[in-house]
Known about the structure:
Low-confidence stretches: 28-32
Shape: elongated
Strand order of the largest sheet: 2-1-5-4-3-6-7
Structural class: alpha/beta
Largest sheet: 7 strands, mixed
Number of helices: 6
Radius of gyration: 22 Å
Helix content: 40-55%
Strand content: 15-25%
Amino acid sequence: NVGMPITRRRASMFAVLLAVALLAALIVWVLPGLKRIAAPAVEFGLLDGSRTSVTDLRGRPVLLVFWATSCPPCIDEIPDLVKLHESLSSRGLMLIAVAMPYDPPVVVRDFARERQLPYAVAIDVPGHAARAFGIPAIPSAVLIDRDGRIAWQQTGRLDTPRVRRLIESMLDPG
Length: 174
């Protein structure tokens, strides 16, 4: 029975290490939701010739959607984006579709006109916005809260019900 205390000590040490690891994992999982990071101060050139920036849009939620005219999933989510824009823009949502740098501006312009996109479309030829937000692939979306902090980010087809709930929680009752 000389080996028994060592086994109990090892088991206790293992239990303590496991508890510490679980606590660390919990902190890593919960903390990002508690402390949002500031969105990069990116400026956008819009198809209508105007310019806006993340800083200019403080005070309202902003949904940035990174897309390309050659991206089938991006095109597939346009009806959902139109519905979001039509139902929430009057309550303060600003939706900006940011075209990827490789998408020629004239193609983006023609696509937006043909589809009659009702929301703002930005041209990002130098790729500043995509780089600043660390966009790995498209479609991607970034939701910025009223204080200019990143509230949510997603790569892949937009989780419309989830993003709608998040946006509505940031808007005044309508």
